[in-house]
Amino acid sequence: MRGLLYIIAVILVIGWLFGAFIHPFGGGLIHILLVIAIISVLLGVIRRA
After folding, report:
1. Among 5, 6, 18, 35, which residue's CB has the most CB atoms within a 10 Å radius?
2. pLDDT value of position 46
3. In the 3-class helix/strand/coil scheme, how is 2-28 assigned residue by residue?
4. Separation CA 40–CA 49 (nearest Å)
5. Cα(35)–Cα(27) distance, rounded to whole angstroms?
6. How many CB atoms lie within 10 A of CB 14?
7. Which of 47, 42, 46, 32 shows the shortest CA–CA distance to 12?
8. pTM
9. 8 CB contacts (<8 Å, ≥6 apart)?
C-alpha cells in the first residue's frame, strides 16, 4: 500500500508540473492535484511511523 501511495503521488506531481508549466488547463485543478499528492505522501509517512 505504501508503494502505491508513492506512485500515485509521483503521477499527481508530474501532472501538476505538466499542467502548471507546460500546458495550463485550469488553475484550480492543478492545485488540487498538488494537494492530493502531498496528502498521499503524508499518509505514507504517517502510516510508516
Report:
1. 5
2. 87
3. HHHHHHHHHHHHHHHHHHHHHCCCCHH
4. 15
5. 13
6. 12
7. 32
8. 0.53
9. 37, 40
